[in-house]
Design brief:
alpha+beta, 6-stranded antiparallel β-sheet, 19 helices, single chain, Phosphorylase Kinase, domain 1, 38% helix, 4 domains, serine/threonine-protein kinase, Transferase(Phosphotransferase), domain 1
Length: 555
């Protein structure tokens, strides 16, 4: 069965219209025939995945989405495998992109912006709880359901819903990138998402971006220097929160827990978003007896018992019974959240009993940073367009086209520019891996070669670590190393934390990079300068995983 010849029925799903076409296949609207709920089925053609060397990336992204069970993160219900295609059954989101919403309305009211921001921060916090850093947060990757609630998407695959966007899904606009990312510095992860959330909050409240320039070097200069202005129409609380998120020094940048305590964020916060991610996770794993009872009334072939439903939940099995349970549960919870949000809006019309505390008391020593002498953002999209030299970063476009076409040609070109995260090399891949093994040997790592260009490493802390830092830090640190081809003759070594303390992991990554640079420096004294270097920014645009059966490197 080919993705170009999709059947009318797939398992328990009746397929309908095509929602979009991407590089790997189509996205179809479908109905779950047992529950009657709509889903979106993304069809990934195996031959196309293999031809682009994207099998490993697809596997990792599916595994990531399977972990997510949050009201404001796109849901993956199940994956159906066939010899020719992979069918991803996803939550159907009918409202389009937040980007288009901002384009159509201009700057949003504080309450509407806060509604979206509450949900974004909650979803990002949940990702971080699962040790997942999005690294490409922007309005184009934030979808809206039919009730204008945010769903965080595009963890590397979601943009296939729009034609021609798939190969750019790992490529983010530099306008949203944190200074440490564009500078090629090491970072733990959550702080770069906080910066991107700050840019998004600015866009919600102002209808334009804080950092923009036709010249990428000038844009990076503005980002590194924190050169932006705050419009006069912003409230005092908003004028306090945004600069705390856009602090250039990541060590001084506000954290997600601190954002949650800020007066601007606390205003009208719905009850279901007041819980920490641990509580959200615990609640998601509980058996909802009302939903179980509902499932027992469904017309499953052969029937269904309560034990089957409960067992599939407790074992986290992706059975047809579990999928039906999840669909019914999500539908029920969505209605509850809508009622809560309505109650919050009614409560907002009542006079407040207490004034919010002084925001400067929340995070001592982190007052607003001084603004550069760039022009003040205008109060309307039209004024913003004039002040940005006849254009605005968030411009209106045909709603049915990919989001990149909503921008003018200059901004669209900026979206196509590649920016990378990791350590980059122009040397032959076999030589790169040889230097990697040398660095690991010097640093006393153990490693296992999973594939010619994929290595799993382990570093065991010395016994001296245990008495001073506690037994938890004496556990081994596991790091995944993967070499990708990002373009002709340019390769990218990517790092992944597979287990262990985050601080120690970052320290070890720094030591690996330092050792690689030392090894490259020794070679450079005898050879032309084509050595390994740290590039300025983000993800590979075309991360082709390398496969060469003739190379067999062992540590």
């Amino acid at each position: 069965m080919s993705s170009h010849d999709v059947p009318v029925q797939l398992g328990y799903y009746r397929l309908g219209e095509t929602l979009g076409t991407g590089s790997f296949g189509k996205v179809k609207l479908a109905e779950h025939m047992i529950t009657g709920h709509k889903v979106a089925i993304k069809i990934l053609n195996r031959n196309k995945i293999r031809s682009l060397d994207m099998s490993e990336k697809v596997r990792r992204e599916i595994g990531l989405l399977r972990k997510m069970q949050h009201p404001h993160i796109i849901r993956l219900y199940e994956v159906i495998d066939t010899p020719t295609d992979i069918f991803m059954v996803l939550e159907y989101v009918a409202g389009g992109e937040l980007f288009d919403y901002i384009v159509s309305k201009g700057r949003l009211s504080p309450d509407e912006a806060r509604h979206f921001f509450h949900q974004i921060v909650s979803g990002v916090e949940y990702c971080h709880f699962h040790r997942v850093v999005h690294r490409d947060l922007k309005p184009e990757n934030l979808l809206l359901d039919g009730d204008n609630n945010v769903k965080i998407a595009d963890f590397g695959l979601s943009n296939t819903m729009k034609d021609g966007e798939f190969l750019r899904t790992s490529c983010g606009s530099p306008n949203y990138a944190a200074p440490e990312v564009i500078s090629g510095n090491l970072y733990a992860g959550p702080e770069v998402d906080v910066w991107s959330c700050g840019v998004i909050l600015y866009a919600l409240l102002c209808g334009a971006l804080p950092f923009d320039d036709e010249s990428i070097p000038n844009l990076f200069k503005k980002i590194r220097g924190g050169m932006y202005s705050l419009p006069s129409h912003l409230s005092d609380d908003a004028r306090d929160l945004i600069p705390r998120m856009l602090v250039v020094d990541p060590m001084k940048r506000i954290t997600i827990p601190e954002i949650r305590q800020h007066p601007w964020f606390q205003t009208n916060l719905p009850p279901y978003l007041q819980h920490p991610p641990e509580a959200v996770e615990h609640e998601a794993r509980k058996v909802d007896e009302e939903v179980v009872a509902k499932c027992l009334t469904l017309q499953f072939p052969g029937g269904m018992s309560r034990d089957q439903v409960v067992q599939s939940i407790e074992r986290d099995e992706r059975t047809p019974v579990r999928v039906a349970y999840d669909l019914v549960l999500d539908h029920k919870n969505a209605k509850i959240r809508i009622d809560e949000l309505r109650n919050v809006k009614r409560h907002d019309n009542q006079p407040k009993t207490f004034s919010p505390p002084d925001p400067t008391l929340l995070v001592p020593g982190r007052g607003p940073i001084p603004m550069a002498a760039s022009p003040m953002i205008a109060a309307s999209p039209g004024d913003a367009m004039r002040q940005f030299g006849g254009r605005t970063p968030l411009t209106r476009g045909p709603p049915a086209m990919p989001s990149v076409q909503h921008m003018n040609d200059a901004l669209a070109e900026k979206k196509r520019r590649r920016w990378y995260l990791g350590i980059q090399s122009k040397k032959e891949p076999a030589h790169v891996m040889s230097e990697v093994y040398k660095a690991l040997l010097v640093l006393h790592f153990e490693w296992k070669v999973l594939a010619p260009y994929r290595v799993k490493c382990r570093w065991q802390p010395p016994l001296a670590f245990a008495p001073s830092t506690g037994p938890s830090h004496a556990k081994p640190i596991k790091i995944g190393l993967q070499l990708y081809k990002v373009q002709q003759h340019i390769y990218l070594l990517d790092f992944e934390n597979l287990g262990g303390d985050a601080f120690t992991y970052m320290n070890l990554c720094a030591r690996i990079i330092t050792e690689l640079k030392t090894l490259s420096g020794a070679v450079r004294s005898m050879a032309p300068p084509t050595d390994m270097h740290a590039p300025p920014v983000g993800h590979p645009s075309h991360p082709h995983q390398l496969h060469n059966p003739h190379i067999n490197l062992h540590g």
